[in-house]
Amino acid sequence: MADLRQLLSQGRKRIGLLVGAGAPLAIRTDGSGKLDDEGTPLISGVDDLTSKAVAALSGTEASAVAAIIKSLEEDPNVESVNIETILSRVRLLQSALGSSEVNGLDSVGHEGVGKNICAAIGTLVGAYLPKDRCAYNEIVSWISGTQRPHPIEVFTTNYDLLFEEAFEAAHAPYYDGFSGSYEPFFDPATVSGDELPARWSRLWKIHGSLGWKLSENGVIRSGGRYENQLVYPDHLKYDLTQKQPYSSLFERLKSFLLTPDTLLLTTGFSFRDSHICAVLDEALAMNSNSSVFAFQYGSLDVEESAVQMAYSRPNFSVFASDGAVINGVKAKWQLGPPPKNWLEIRATFWENHNDDDSGYFILGDFVKFCRFCALSQSVDFEINSTTQVATEADEATD
From CA 191, how far away is CA 181, in angstroms rounded? Predict the structure, then answer.
């Protein structure tokens, strides 16, 4: 953590972020849009997203999906029933039925079900940033707060526009692969290059985004939350990622990791997306000088997908709540005697239990991860029971 904090503060290393669905799930707000630890998540998790998307259907579509859910629950080969498995079954029926009917719907009917589910997903993930400064504002403050020889590259599977809002609120320039002002178009040639200044961060929406739509000449960015040409979580996901703009965005992720001396930090990502894991695995195998630090919210037992990847690639490290896998070695956390002035810094990544001296690693929480990054340039801390306040000191600590 000392080494990581130093890397984050210096701004000299090539650093990227891979941000998954756990990021907005970690931010909670009350009914008025203000931050509230006891409130509801900014964007629902998979289970809640599934129930809400299904509830948006009506009539024959609702009864057809209810029948699909029942068949999935009875299928021993299906590990869990969620929006991904439901959409996969809907798309399979769409491609196989033709004019025949199952549960009252033919191929065209199931196509409509898929579109309506996807439209519901687009609505559910269209949240705005809270009224208070939140984790997205803090991570952008860290990104834009240092002069860098290499831009920070943010890769995200999320469809929301929360990063865009945070960058623009801070007047921090970023590039997302689109060029133009009337109907910005996706430009693969610029995505693969590095001609823009380093102060322009890169934001790569590798599963698509709200506001994207298809035109005669390709994908354009509409500037709103209404269009949703997204890579939705179904069995066609891998095929869709082989097309533009997704193929260029995945190639950018691969080329980033193939660049010497790079570090990719992941947060809110479960490592259950096989197509993304394949890119990471291949790039790490080809370039031993790049590294991935995966900050996971759960325990090592829960984060099995990330742990298995860490076993096969020594330059892939997992930091879970109760332990880590570093250089292929799995072990529980054990605190040692802290260096001078380190207890306050430790509080930014470690939380003690109330009933004993044990504790757990907290950077798997997106909110805590962003705070850790934002505080990396501060040299003097004052910790109280509810907040962590950093102030500039006259001289650096040891």
Answer: 17
